[in-house]
Design a protein that fits this description.
Shape: globular
Strand content: 5-15%
Structural class: alpha/beta
Number of helices: 2
Length: 115
């Protein structure tokens, strides 16, 4: 279905061979995933090509997409702003047209806030 469409993964879920930092300096470059999360596995099976991870606040715990490990995610249309929510990195990547698809999760507004 996806036939080579690139996608990125929110840095709160595993993608085999990539670090899952949860936006934390403690896990940055250390927590290498041995397997894909179910969502990543499904996207790959559908023909998607994983190109990387997107930023998230530490442990997805705040409505501002900033952490000490990777810094602040900026809104690509207004760099004085940040996309809110823990899926802000995914929202910014898609808005900047870096790729057409990025994973996200919405436990407390993480997709709705950046939208």
């Amino acid at each position: 279905l996806l036939c080579g469409v690139p996608f990125a993964v929110k840095d709160m879920e595993d993608a085999q061979g990539l670090s899952t930092s949860y936006g934390s300096t403690v896990f940055k470059d250390k927590n290498i995933a041995e397997n894909d999360s179910p969502q990543v596995a499904r996207l790959k099976r559908a023909g998607g090509i994983l190109i990387g991870k997107t930023n998230t606040p530490i442990f997805g715990s705040t409505a501002l997409c900033h952490n000490r490990a990777f810094g602040t995610t900026r809104n690509p249309w207004d760099l004085s702003r940040t996309p809110g929510g823990s899926s802000g990195g995914s929202a910014a990547a898609v808005a900047a047209r870096l790729l057409p698809i990025a994973t996200a999760a919405d436990g407390g507004g993480s997709i709705r806030i950046p939208a």
